[in-house]
Amino acid sequence: EVQLVESGGGLVQAGGSLRLSCVASGFAFDDYAIGWFRQALGKEREGVACINSGDGATVYADSVKGRFTISRDNAKNTVYLHMNRLKPEDTAIYYCAATLKGSWSLIAGAIQGESFDYDYWGQGTQVTVSS
Known about the structure:
Layout: E1 3-7, E2 10-13, E3 18-25, E4 33-39, E5 46-51, E6 58-60, E7 68-73, E8 78-83, E9 92-99, H1 104-109, E10 120-121, E11 125-130
Parallel strand pairs: 2-11
Antiparallel strand pairs: 1-3, 3-8, 4-5, 4-9, 5-6, 7-8, 9-10, 9-11
């Protein structure tokens, strides 16, 4: 059974930090690109960051560039999202997703708002940033 399980969300004050984790099982994690997405209440889902398999290339949404860092530990089947200098507008449910299909440009394009759907999705973890 394919599973992506996010954790690490919570309530934090503006300017604070959180580290989200996404633990994967049931598929060949090393071969998959992994992305983080978020959806705020009443808004559409948006891409946050993604990391490729193999070379570990990364792409970030403009809104989080310089504040968030995505990384992966293939030995632990885990992807992390380190979030620093959090802002109230970062409040959302954060989802991780995995994909094997598609070129890197398509996978990364999804982070920039282009249409591309990942293969597997987690259930999400809530991040709330208070002002």
